[in-house]
Amino acid sequence: xxxxxxxxxxxxxxxxxxxxxxxxxxxxxxxxxxxxxxxxxxxxxxxxxxxxxxxxxxxxxxxxxxxxxxxxxxxxxxxxxxxxxxxxxxxxxxxxxxxxxxxxxxxxxxxxxxxxxxxxxxxxxxxxxxxxxxxxxxxxxxxxxxxxxxxxxxxxxxxxxxxxxxxxxxxxxxxxxxxxxxxxxxxxxxxxxxxxxxxxxxxxxxxxxxxxxxxxxxxxxxxxxxxxxxxxx
Length: 233
Fold this sequence. Notes:
The protein is of the alpha/beta class. It is built from nine helices and eight strands. The chain has a six-stranded parallel sheet with strand order 5-2-1-6-7-8, sandwiched between helices. β7 (185-194), α8 and β8 (217-219) form a beta-alpha-beta unit. The chain is globular, with a radius of gyration of 17 Å.
């Protein structure tokens, strides 16, 4: 009997093959620099209430999936302390919008911005990984670029990815597009993702529905919880 989650634009996954051993939740970049007071996004002048919106639904979803035996994985965007993996144009752009010209690699209220090992780079305590959960450190927007995520997923037999985190239109969407090209079946969780601009979040969701689900599908976390409660997962 097929096991699926109600999603837009199709019941997910496409083949009804949904099991704890072939499905993982990937929580992308829920770091202080992106959703904490004094972090990078905050110092750029964006409303962090938007990027903090996924926290509560994610807490509920992560607990439910862990209890059901599903893998929960995490990513962190950040650069080496010597900034040898930080492209000059990325740093330049970040300084154009940062407070007083402060950007990636510079000192901020939460340490050096988006630098590995600094307080702002850490995943927020509310969504901290449990011992043994995979954490992928990445230097770019996508979770596959310059990381071993693909190998980790294939070694574990993961075919289906539930995608959460921030931001919907940048790191999450980049990861979803890349995962789709690699053959993974993707479901973006609409209330467990967010952007610095709500219009961009909505546009990112709409893009997924084009061409019959060009990158996969999207659904609220309530659809996942309902499927768990009904025994469909």
